[in-house]
Design goal:
There is one protein chain. By secondary structure, the protein is of the alpha+beta class. The chain has one domain (about 5-180, about 275-380): FAD/NAD(P)-binding domain, CATH 3.50.50.60. Helices cover about 30% and strands about 30% of the residues. The strands form three sheets. Strands 5, 6, 12, 13, 14, 15, 16, 17 and 20 form a nine-stranded mixed β-sheet that branches. Strands 1, 2, 8, 9, 10, 11, 18 and 19 form an eight-stranded mixed β-sheet that branches. Strands 3-7-4 form a three-stranded antiparallel β-sheet. Helix 1 (about 15-25) runs parallel beside helix 3 and helix 1 runs parallel beside helix 7. The radius of gyration is 21 Å and the shape is globular. Bound molecules: flavin-adenine dinucleotide. Flavin-adenine dinucleotide binds next to helix 1, strand 3, strand 9, strand 12 and helix 7.
Amino acid sequence: MTAARHDVAIVGGGLVGASLAIALDRLGLDVALIEATPAGALPAVFDQRNLSFAEATVNALSALGVMAKLRAPTGAIRRIHVSRAGDFGRARFDAAGYGREAFGQVVVARDFGEALEARLAELARLIRYRPSRFVGFGDSDGDTRAVRIADDAGERVVHARLVVGADGSQSGVRDALGIGMVLHDYGQALFVARLHAEHAPDGTAWERLGPQGPTALLPRGDRHYGLVHAVDAGEADMVAALDDAAFLARAQAAIGWRVGRLLAVGPRSRHPAMRVVADRLVAPRAVLVGNAAQSLHPIGAQGFNLGLLLAAHAARRDEDRRRTLAFSDGLARLTADGNPLLRPLRSLGLLALDRVPSLQAALVGGAMGYRGDVPALCRA
Ligand SMILES: Cc1cc2nc3c(=O)[nH]c(=O)nc-3n(C[C@H](O)[C@H](O)[C@H](O)COP(=O)(O)OP(=O)(O)OC[C@H]3O[C@@H](n4cnc5c(N)ncnc54)[C@H](O)[C@@H]3O)c2cc1C
């Protein structure tokens, strides 16, 4: 049997791989999407996590016809309020001050997965291999790379002029290319859940920085909040075992009373906070994108945003990659550092952010996805 040949083979149909498949199909390319999850199921990454999409990401996903497929309403982030427990400083950002309706939109990953799936199903040209696992590279001719994939029936080979590794932070493609990575464990676990509070969301995203890391409430579109609560890794098992009432009391203590009493919490999911940075992004006829290229601490809500931009134009996004890595990492380390000597500095930093428009503008522009040379797809 002759092996199939494609312009591009994308390994991994998660947030970035599926979005990239839609973007490349639009360019008329013959694309193969290789995903380990079987047809009829969504990859596990499309869970209850709340994704905050930067404006540039919303622009790109609208142009790709994905936003129109979302069934649940999105939650607009019109204001951001950041404070630190025990410190006097705080920073407030208002989209109206930048001539914008919103900084971005909160989308539940599950809804996003279903919307991507609905859009992928419309692409007549796209070839999907699922369930199929990437197992390695085979002998390549000069024009293509051979990709070995396996399912229950055995192994097969597909050829592609370009192979895209979009298979997440533990990327097998990255390993098979011999590309190393640097891993940093922040020593935190993040609990994510849907929350109902006394006061419904009013477009404000609340972020409170505590001794164990950040706790955030994102304004969802369904009158609930998306909670992200960081705890020390050593306490994670204990927190996972709490009943709903005890978990709510813990979240209340971490976020304070800005949205009134926290009333109810949905199922909780737990995620390690890791930073994984690949040594290189490209190899002959291969490129790494999304979490395979870099996984960030979710505090900056930038992982998918950056991944999509990078996928849109890997080489041109180097500046954005460096700046976003530094931003998310610096924020995660500073906010998790309980050193009392740093406290006045952090308070002054928050005050400066609150008062100095040029500082705010630089930060907000980056958070909205406008850094460096922005691809046309991401502009309104
Ligand atoms: C709690 C939390 C909150 C977050 N919030 C935000 C946010 O607000 N904004 C934001 O931009 N980002 C956020 N992120 C980050 C975001 O989830 C990731 O950046 C994003 O999932 C990366 O997408 P990806 O496609 O690169 O990888 P993944 O989504 O991990 O997808 C990888 C895919 O590859 C498949 N795969 C793996 N191995 C193989 C193989 N051998 N063969 C075939 N297929 C394979 C998997 O099944 C999966 O479908 C958050 C992350 C967490 C944990």
